[in-house]
Structures are given as structure tokens and as C-alpha cells.
Amino acid sequence: MSLSTPVSRRALRHTRAIDIQAFAREDGLWDLDAHITDIKVHDTLLASGLRPGGQPLHDLWLRITVDKQLTIVDAEAVSDAVPYPGFCNTIGPAYKALIGLNLMKGFRQELKARLAGIAGCTHLTELAQILPTAAVQAYANDVWPTYDKASAAQSKEKPFQLDKCHALRTDGGAVLEFYPSWVAEKAGAI
Fold first, then answer.
1. Which pTM does this prediction carry?
2. Which tops the pLDDT comparison, 156 or 88?
3. Is the separation of the CB atoms in 89 and 82 below 8 Å?
């Protein structure tokens, strides 16, 4: 399924791309390398000068290193292209403030408390907000078992993904079909 056909002719002006790659390290830790770019199609006149079309306005990197419990043990931020060279690209060390946070325990609130506004880079902080779900995807079936239908029925431990989204709510049809032993019946039955 894709989006509907646009109702009017359109002209591309801007592309924001976000890429996150997760790496299992030999030492048992995991690196999440996050990258964001903003590229205009046409030349853009910035206060700092002309940025030719097709060249990034932002080319930013954030790496967090997490343990198996998703606690951040290291963080690094690098800004390769920024609208205000010599200013934007000096904020990287501030992202060490992420060390000690857990991606699954109030991360987004604490991220904002530590790095919102002038304490961080708007774009790097926004990028960091999507790291929890990227980490969950990385850990699924590698660190945390997701279980198939048969093994879920035998498990005494609830599969981690249940009750974390609309489709996998324990009173819903997907759980009834794929994880039947974990169905939590609503009043009135499913």
C-alpha cells in the first residue's frame, strides 16, 4: 500500500533523510549510528552564505552505545555540514549528557530536559528521539526473543512486544491469532 496520488502537480524542494543502523559489537555492547541530512533542490542563501542546491544544509551524525538493557554507556555527535559553521558544529560534546539514560525508561523526557533548546542542536535532539524504537527493532530476535506461535504458547515470559502497539494489544485479533496463550479477554470477549 502506498500514499494516494497527489491531487495537484508538485515540485520537490527539500529532502530530509534519516538513517539508523544498529551494530552488535564484539564486546557485547551495541552501537546505534543515526544520520540525518537536509538537502534543498535549489541554491539557498543562508546568513552564512550561499549553499548550492543538492548540497546538505545539515549532515549530522549521532552514535550511542548501549548495553543489553538499553542503557547508554557512550554517546558521540558530529556535524559534517551545518548552516552556521564554527557554531552549530561545536555542540557535539553536549551529547555525552545522554550517558546513563535508558532508552526504555523515560528517555524522551530526560533527553528534552538535558538537550532541548540552546543546550543542544534541534536536529540532533530530534534524531535522538527515534532511537528507542530503532533499538527495539535491532534487539528483536537478536537480544530479546520475539517467539513464534508454538514457543510463545510454552513460554512463561510474556513476549516483550505485546501491548506495545495497537496491533499487538493483548485484547486484539493479532494476539489471538499469533500469540493465543497471551490473550487478555476484554469484558464481553473478543
1. 0.87
2. 88
3. yes
